[in-house]
Amino acid sequence: MLISQTIDKLNQMKFFGMVKGLDEQRVNPEAKSLSFEERISLLVDRELADREDRRLERLLKAAKLKVAACLENLDYSGARGLERPLVASLAGFDWLKQQHNMIITGATGTGKTYLACAFGNGACRHGFKTIYLRVPSLLEELKIARVDGSYLKLMTRLGRTQLLILDDFGLSALSETEAKDILEVIEECQGKSSVIVAGQLPVESWHQALGNPTVADAIMDRLVHSAYKFNLKGDSMRKKKRQKQTAKPATM
Q1: Does the 64-240 domain belong in CATH 3.40.50.300?
Q2: What is the pairing mode between strands 227-232 and 163-167?
Q3: pLDDT tens digits for 191-202?
Q4: How far apart are CA 66 and CA 84, in angstroms?
Q5: Pick from 20, 46, 52, 152: most CB atoms within 10 A?
């Protein structure tokens, strides 16, 4: 009866990890040989691990990453423009603490989205609030937000994130209003968070896609100069994956 009441109180206090740890100790005969201090220490460790797991789950859910990617699974084979030492130096995520940015460019299928999401996943694991958005979807959200009065709320949400991933940048030329919207988002993040921009368009072509030269200069000034750059090359990774999946084993 006493243990049942204790578990109820732990659940009321949201010490769910301790409840799991207590259940594990109750069915583990070896736990009985541990001292009181050792068992308490294990329960505290279980609670901390459970809270970290739940926080990571919340961060990943809020990030809405397009693909389940991680830096450990990156493919460095061939001349992809993906340098292992650079990735390793960025895997500590000190660049997020310094509000530096990242630009990932390359042809279709070279792995831009995967790389962006891999850094997004890593950011979540390091405790950084992350949001993934496709630029066309972001522009549509901003357009709707202006109509229904939620524009300031949306901009505040974007500004409070610590890593904003903008994928599919430059799929088509932007109108002057759309270019200004992108500038407003970048400005909202300036000095508070980092931005990853991923797209097929090389940086030297951004002026043409953004149209208004003044807006283009403002966006590039805020993004490019403090950005780490990846220019991915080579054959389509999706094509390679399909070829591996359809390849038949050789017969004798």
Answers
A1: yes
A2: unpaired
A3: 899 999 999 988
A4: 23
A5: 46
Axis-axis angle for helices 2-12, 16-27 (nearest 10): 150
Domain extent listing, the chain:
2-61, 64-240
Tokens of 143: 């357009």
| Residue 3 CA: distances (Å) to CA of 7, 22, 82 | 6, 10, 55
Structural tokens at position 224: 């490019």
On whether the CB atoms of residues 194 and 100 are closer than 8 A, the answer is yes
Contact by Cβ (8 Å): 232, 110 = yes
- In Å, the largest CA–CA distance within the chain is 74
Alpha-carbon distance of 169 to 75, in angstroms, equals: 23
* Predicted TM-score of the model (pTM): 0.81
DSSP H or E run through 196: strand 194-199
Mind listing the pLDDT tens digit for each residue in 85-114?
Answer: 999 999 999 999 999 999 999 998 899 999
